[in-house]
TrEMBL record:
Organism of derivation: Bactrocera dorsalis
Top-level lineage group: Eukaryota
TM spans (from-to): 6-27
Protein name: Protein THEM6
Membrane is among the record's keywords: yes
Pfam families to which the protein is assigned, alphabetical: 4HBT_2
Record flagged with keyword Transmembrane helix: yes
Keywords: Membrane, Transmembrane, Transmembrane helix
Family: Belongs to the THEM6 family.
Length: 193
């Protein structure tokens, strides 16, 4: 009986399912999928369940999109070996910014995939593009840009360890505009001090 009480307390004070899913996503990727190049697109699959929906119980709520993007990023790091390179240098990765453009909802009980691709990097961060695609029709339901700040190490040095990333791609126009908007926001906040 005490085990059930401890389990109940854990579920009340922590999001246990999140941690279980993180471990499962990384382990399943490492055990059952082949290693990918850092420039490859990685894919995870999901299903919009009753735990993912909004108050009207019809489609995935906005918070769940961001949560699912976390799992897709962990999967990307695990399959490409990028995070191992960061950890070797005693660095870390934190979400610096994200932007999601919702095109069409993901209805309840519809399967989807999230495709993650590294699109650019600078000295301090990597930038990912992640797409939600429903399996029934192949429609891109949402697209996210993600800035992953890499702490305590130089990203350009890390990228040199991946032969396929010897040349940094040209910065996509939409990424440049997004980064410009982030910089304007930062300047405004600094002025408000």
């Amino acid at each position: 009986m005490s085990f059930l009480v401890i389990l109940l307390i854990l579920y009340i004070i922590w999001d246990v399912n999140y941690f279980i899913r993180c471990v499962f996503t990384v382990l399943a990727g490492r055990l059952f999928q082949s290693k990918r190049k850092v420039t490859d697109t990685t894919t995870i699959y999901g299903l919009c369940t009753s735990q993912d929906v909004d108050i009207f119980i019809r489609h995935m709520n906005n918070a769940r999109y961001l949560r699912e993007l976390d799992f897709a990023r962990f999967h990307f790091y695990a399959l490409t070996g990028l995070y191992e390179q960061v950890r070797e240098r005693k660095g870390g990765a934190v979400q610096g910014a994200s932007s999601v453009r919702y095109r069409r909802t993901i209805p309840i009980f519809h399967p989807y995939k999230i495709q993650t691709k590294l699109i650019w990097w600078d000295e301090k961060a990597i930038y990912l593009e992640q797409s939600f695609v429903t399996l029934s029709d192949g429609f891109v339901r949402a697209v996210a840009l993600s800035k992953q700040c890499i702490t305590n190490c130089d990203v350009t040095e890390i990228m040199k360890t991946f032969p396929e990333a010897a040349t940094r791609p040209e910065m996509p126009a939409e990424l440049k505009l997004w980064l410009d908007a982030i910089e304007l926001s930062s300047q405004k906040l600094r002025k408000d001090k």
